[in-house]
Amino acid sequence: MADDLNGNATPVGSSSEGRGGMTVEQCEKMIQKSFRTPTVKFLMEHLEKSGCSIGSKFIKAVDCDKRISGGYVRGEGVVVCSNHLQIQDEVNQVVIHELIHAYDDCRAENLDWTNCAHHACSEIRAGHLSGDCHYKRELLRGHMKLRGHEQDCVRRRVMQSVTANPYCSEAAAKDAMEAVWDVCYNDTKPFDRAP
Ligand SMILES: [Zn+2]
């Protein structure tokens, strides 16, 4: 799975909580801008160091049918869903989230996206390390609970992504997430600690 955006396979998506949207052209500009942020630069460097350097066409803006904000597809690259995003900060988050999936795919030769535990692990890392669950973004989404919010938020988003995987039922996704949580939450590579 995670091979084909147009076929039956589902990309390894970030969940969408978006409102309006922007044009593909506006989104392309924001993607270019995201390349100048320190975290995106850092991840690109580490992809290159791991033997998976990515060209300028690796990340592209598209209009997405599914309610997702982006996706990573093995062998194809990253898509950013222009019609579900509005501001630069959201584009940066999606790019960072999907580059963590690309990094995981690169470093783990036997990563199997049809395996719910493998998928859950990469979603835990992407959710934790991308700042998707920074409290300011959670407040914008209307989730007001602050104590323990970060892990709750990561769990919620991992469940949304893994249950969208046709190989993972809700129960399988939950079991997989719990089984790998500690190891994957604490695995912050290529960062020394969560940025
Ligand atoms: Zn994801």
From TrEMBL:
InterPro entries: Peptidase_M76_ATP23 (IPR019165). Its EC number is 3.4.24.-. Residues 7-17 have a biased composition (Polar residues). Pfam families: Peptidase_M76. GO terms for cellular component: mitochondrion. It comes from the Eukaryota. GO terms for molecular function: metal ion binding; metalloendopeptidase activity. Residues 1-20 are annotated as: Disordered. It is an enzyme of class 3 (hydrolase). GO terms for biological process: mitochondrial protein processing; mitochondrial proton-transporting ATP synthase complex assembly. Keywords: Hydrolase, Metal-binding, Metalloprotease, Protease. Belongs to the peptidase M76 family. This is Mitochondrial inner membrane protease ATP23. It comes from Dorcoceras hygrometricum. The lineage of its organism: Eukaryota, Viridiplantae, Streptophyta, Embryophyta, Tracheophyta.
